[in-house]
Amino acid sequence: MSKEKKARGYLSGREIRAITKANKKVMKRLEAQKYRKAEESEFLTEMKDPGNILEIDNLHTYFFTEQGVVKAVNGVSFNIPKNATVGIVGESGCGKSVTSMSVMRLLQGPQGQIYSGSIRFKAYDYKLDEKGKPVPAPAGSATPYEMEEKVYDIAQMPMREIHRIRGKQIAMIFQEPMTSLNPVFTIGQQLDEVTFIHTPGATKEDAKARSIEMLNLVGIAMPERVYGAFPHELSGGMRQRVMIAMALAADPRLIIADEPTTALDVTIQAQILDLLRNLKDKIDGSILLITHDLGVIAEMADYVVVMYAGKVIEQGTVEEIFHNPMHPYTIGLQKSKPTLQSNDDTLFNIPGNVPNPINMPDYCYFKERCDKCVKACSGEYPCMVQVSPTHFVACHLYDKEVDHG
Ligand SMILES: Nc1ncnc2c1ncn2[C@@H]1O[C@H](COP(=O)(O)OP(=O)(O)OP(=O)(O)O)[C@@H](O)[C@H]1O
Ligand code: SF4
Ligand SMILES: [Mg+2]
User: Fold this and answer.
1) Is the CB–ligand 1 distance for residue 67 below 6 Å?
2) Of 118, 161, 345, 389, which sits with the fewest C-beta atoms within 10 Å of its C-beta?
3) Which residues contact 28 (CB under 8 A, 6 or more apart)?
């Protein structure tokens, strides 16, 4: 192979075969772990802070490709407090969706795998007896089985147990509702299905009543008509409302909304965001909102997590991130946000590109694009520095221990 090709990262057939062989070994181990039979005790854990509903701790999610290992999520940690909205923001490809797909365990295997780390989730689930069977509730109880609060490490749960939380305790709203709704079933059939899956013993009448209630809750004016309609008969905004109704039907504790308004036009976007904001209080739950739009984050979130190249580089309350951004990347993101005053000539662009995710450097991933570099920036990757009880930043500029020369 020519030197030029080598420099551009081309791999020889031999190198690709060696990578594939190494990948196969790791993927086999991780797949076996995913599909193992496990007692509940193997994935029961404790929250570090009981005020949180979700704690992501040093999560590593990789894609094993023949070009090498893509470290899409590379040591991500953040918490979602109860009843809070946490926004994840960052440029395209920084790992926002892969983080949420890891929480839902929706990664496409065997290539996509949670490699290490914990995802602690405070669930409200059936109490189990010593044989692992749900304990029946006394006659007259609201649920057929006894319920209790317990903490699962989602990263350790075998796939056969994921139904306990996915779609039920944690629901997801995707960017493009048309691809998430099944075109051959009516809205009513698809909504009823959620109740049938998650409420043991629900009758057809119960399911329909619940579906109509959810359609009402998301502001659909003629719920009976929409109940009988097929997805293609609805507008994009209506379909997104239906998706939100589906997410709510199982009464989740956490809703993950991945770019929920990106496919919609501006006025409908505002309506859907209003809807999500109001719903959080009604359902007594939390929201993880993923977007590349800082304006949406500013309006919706209580806490903000800024991601760059698979890592969290800054996090804090919405006031801290907007009024006192510290990381040069967060400052750049804010400058690149379009305003009514800006036009194409004045819009700021963070110069340069994200490094290749297969060959990340050992030093700060933002170094090639940063105009504030100090001596330490050529050294080790910066540690997370705490600047307030809630504000953290990974940048040498704020680390008192390092050389600022
Ligand atoms: N199936 C896959 N195989 C290989 N790499 C993948 C795969 N899916 C995602 N990636 C890589 O993981 C990284 C993170 O992707 P992710 O989809 O999480 O980005 P994102 O922050 O959601 O971006 P966007 O704003 O465009 O949605 C990217 O480098 C992407 O190329
Ligand atoms: S650590 Fe250095 S290179 Fe990285 S963002 Fe901070 S100043 Fe810039
Ligand atoms: Mg995405």
Assistant:
1) no
2) 345
3) 110
